[in-house]
Design brief:
With 334 residues, this protein is α+β, with helices and mostly antiparallel strands. Helix content is 24%, strand content 26%. The chain has two domains: 10-282, Sandwich (Jelly Rolls); 295-327, no CATH class. The protein has nine helices and 14 strands. Bound molecules: succinic acid and fe (iii) ion. Fe (iii) ion (FE) binds at residues 184, 186, 264.
Length: 334
């Protein structure tokens, strides 16, 4: 899209004091797309017809009519942030009583009419809503038809060329304007296909781990950054000052490749109306331990070490002291 056609402006972006470059945009036939994907580098892919069948039709009315009778997962939040948490980790072996964790959002199941009505009736001060549901076989026949018309050759080609594992899910996101999915990483390859409205996506490479302070793996907020981008606490998270990332705004027809283990913060633009996205999540390919290791492989190793220590020590409180005793003065600079 040329600058003249741009359908949003910078006043619709939230303000963060972060150094950000632009993620490159390439037409889907440009060989640079695969060059970047092969190096696990994000790229915004334009001109593909991946979800064209949905772009032509999917809006709130159409989805309300055709999604079907099943219930959908909707998160409610008192503010614009929808920080993900893993319910299974609230009551886990390392946290048997589920203490000291207040879920930041409420998860509800509702039928699509209830959701659409709540969206329509929404007033300032009400809880915000965000529908996040894996597409499954309960959707109505029109949605199935649109889904079958997705460009499956396009995604199969990416999967095969880059040796990704199987497609695990397609998640449908229906967001209110201004909603934010705070910074986190996923353990899957992601083709993020925008259908309606505009989302700003801020990405950071896996080597920014130390600047982003992920919650410990046993914590319900595993994989989420502890840093509050709206009001960073530089005393607790001093290295966040050095963070460097990249960003883009995706609109209808755009597909963003979010590489496995890359951090991402995603915001539906302010005053831009609701947004609709479908993502394609693929398992990572076979692990190929070639040296030097890639940064995301090191993150995976750290996760495994953390999990193993939790398993044997049985108490998260013991992990810090043990690692400090092992490392300080032995593996640190003098
Ligand atoms: C979002 O679109 O809000 C989140 C998508 C993701 O984290 O993969
Ligand atoms: Fe994600």
């Amino acid at each position: 899209m040329s600058e003249e056609q741009k359908s949003w402006d910078s006043s619709q972006l939230r303000n963060y004091d972060i150094e950000l470059e632009q993620i490159p945009r390439y037409h889907f036939q440009d060989p640079k797309v695969d060059e970047r994907i092969s190096k696990n580098q994000p790229v915004l892919i334009t001109g593909s017809k991946l979800v064209k069948s949905a772009e032509e039709k999917w809006n709130l009315d159409y989805l309300g009519k055709h999604l079907g009778k099943s219930t959908y997962t909707v998160f409610l939040s008192k503010n614009h942030n929808f920080k993900y948490f893993d319910e299974k980790k609230i009551y886990s072996k390392s946290n048997p009583k589920g203490i000291e964790f207040k879920p930041p959002t409420q998860r509800l199941e509702m039928n699509i009419h209830e959701f659409m009505k709540k969206l329509k009736d929404w007033k300032k001060g009400d809880d915000r809503l965000y529908l996040q549901q894996t597409l499954n076989s309960t959707v109505g026949p029109s949605i199935v038809e649109d889904y079958l018309k997705f460009d499956w050759h396009f995604v199969a080609d990416k999967k095969n060329k880059h040796m990704w594992g199987e497609l695990t899910s397609n998640v449908l996101f229906i967001s209110m304007e201004g909603n934010v999915t705070p910074c986190h990483y996923d353990e899957q390859q992601n083709l993020f296909a925008q259908i309606l409205g505009y989302k700003r996506c801020i990405l950071f490479p896996p080597d920014q781990f130390e600047c982003l302070y992920p919650h410990p793996v046993y914590h319900p907020h595993d994989r989420q950054s502890m840093v509050n981008f709206d009001n960073p606490n530089f005393t607790k998270h001093p290295k966040f000052k050095n963070i460097k990332g990249c960003e883009t705004v995706v609109g209808p027809g755009d597909v963003l490749y979010i590489p496995i283990y890359w951090w991402h913060h995603i915001e539906s633009l302010l005053h831009g109306g609701p947004t609709i996205t479908v993502n394609f999540w693929y398992k990572g390919g076979p692990t190929n331990l070639q040296y030097p290791l890639q940064d995301h492989q090191k993150v995976s190793i750290m996760r495994n070490v953390e999990k193993m220590l939790l398993e044997v020590l049985q108490d998260p409180q013991e992990i810090g002291p043990l690692l400090r005793a092992m490392v300080l003065g032995r593996y640190t600079d003098p």
